[in-house]
Design brief:
It is found in: Cell inner membrane. The protein is mainly α and about 425 residues long. It has one domain. The chain contains 16 helices and four strands. A two-stranded parallel ribbon has the order 1-4. Helix 2 crosses helix 13. The longest helix is centred in the middle third of the chain and has 27 residues.
Length: about 425
């Protein structure tokens, strides 16, 4: 009996006691992925400080975990808004709970591996954030993935996500060019940290954060009890120790791993995991190659000026992104799941529009689902919570737009395929 392999951003947590057999591993692809990762690691060791090779390894772990758990943000938001299934959202709450527990002492005491200063993602609250997060919420539902989802879907071979990634970069570059208008000409409040701006301290902010996460989890369970949404469909998996390398991982296990890896990233480079600042860098370097004076943009002034003039391999976010793609590639090959998928005119159009909205929105909102939502909330920043609410609002709007591009919207009678 043949097994239908679903697109990587649509495959979700397996239903208990149901299993779909994995394909055989793809040894040539695994060997290729290991070779590329090894060459990049050695290159980074030769030209960069120790932090960059360490970040590559952390990126590999992040990509491997994302793919093996099919840990999504786009689908999690869509399922809870469309039919009320909050299982994936509860995994987000667990991930954030573990993250704040680890981030609190790291930020409070400045703990780091290489002696650098440590700071979280705490950004202003204003028009830029509201517009950007709402735009990102729509974009990720049209583009088929969030920032991390785009990277791991590319690593898994989902062809249309290469289109999304390209226009994600374009949108992020345009957003970098326009950012001074949004941040300097429009109203905004100063950054608010639940730990340092409220008098709660990291201990009080940690307790408040856990209370918020618990409340969100309870709300999703109450919604499920009322709506009785369908369960998530099974995904290819195996059992025993082999599941560590080849099979699907439970969402809650992946949530813990991702939180730990994010905390290690904070200690390794002095800031949490991020994704989209590298997209602005890549796009700006290409524009600079074609004669555009990007160095005159406000975005590339001050501390960012040196980043623009340096090699992309000196950029820690770039190294993390390469690691995520390679980690997802290795995970997909280990499960025998790597394959390119079909592109249609409609999903190509959705990827173009969604990618542009993702990139532009991420710049306006001071980050994406990783830098603003995951990293911001883990850093006790108010803007991270606001980002999540506005991205959910964008998701709700996108539910009415997806059918225009032939994209599915889950119904109460459907299984999550």
């Amino acid at each position: 009996m043949s097994v239908r392999v679903q697109p990587v951003d649509e495959v979700k947590e397996p239903v208990e006691k149901e299993k779909v057999a994995l394909n055989d591993p793809q040894p040539k692809l695994i060997a290729g992925g290991v070779a590329v990762s090894s060459i990049l690691f050695v290159y980074l060791m030769a030209i960069q400080a120790l932090a960059q090779p360490v970040l590559l390894l952390l990126g590999l772990g992040l990509g491997y975990t994302l793919f093996h758990a099919r840990f999504g943000f786009t689908s999690a938001f869509r399922k809870v808004m469309a039919v009320g299934n909050g299982q994936a959202m509860r995994s987000h709450m667990l991930m954030l709970a573990v993250a704040v527990t680890l981030f609190a002492p790291i930020l409070a005491f400045g703990l780091s591996f290489f002696g650098q200063d440590v700071s979280g993602y705490v950004s202003p609250v204003g028009v830029s954030l509201f517009v950007g997060a709402f735009m990102f919420g729509i974009g990720m539902q049209l583009g088929g993935g969030c920032a991390s989802g785009t990277l791991y879907a590319v690593g898994g071979g989902r062809s249309v996500m290469f289109i999304t990634l390209f226009f994600f970069i374009v949108g992020s570059t345009i957003g970098a060019a326009h950012l001074p208008f949004w941040t300097e000409e429009l109203p905004a409040f100063e950054p608010v940290s639940l730990a340092t701006s409220t008098g709660l301290g990291y201990g009080g902010a940690w307790i408040l954060s856990l209370a918020i996460f618990g409340l969100v989890a309870l709300i999703t369970m109450a919604i499920e009890k009322k709506k009785r949404p369908p369960k998530m469909a099974p995904v290819p998996t195996t059992s025993g120790w082999k599941r560590l390398l080849r099979g699907s991982w439970p969402l809650f296990a992946a949530a813990i791993v991702l939180a730990v890896l994010n905390a290690l990233t904070l200690m390794a480079r002095g800031s949490p995991w991020g994704v989209t600042s590298a997209f602005a860098l890549w796009g700006s370097k290409v524009a600079m190659f074609f004669g555009v004076d990007v160095s005159s943009w406000g975005y590339w002034q001050g501390a960012n000026a040196e980043v623009l003039q340096s090699s992309i391999f000196a950029d820690s976010t770039t190294v993390l992104n390469f690691g995520v793609i390679l980690g997802a590639f290795l995970a997909s090959a280990a499960g025998g799941l790597f394959r390119f998928t079909r592109i249609t005119i409609k999903n190509l159009m959705a990827s173009v529009i969604g990618g542009l909205m993702l990139g532009y929105g991420a710049r306006l909102a001071f980050g994406c689902n990783i830098g603003a939502y995951f990293g911001g909330i883990a850093s006790f920043s108010l803007h991270g919570y606001i980002w999540g609410v506005l991205a959910l609002a964008g998701t709700f709007v996108a539910l009415y737009l997806r059918p225009l591009f032939g994209l599915s919207v889950p119904k109460s009678k459907d299984s999550f395929c």
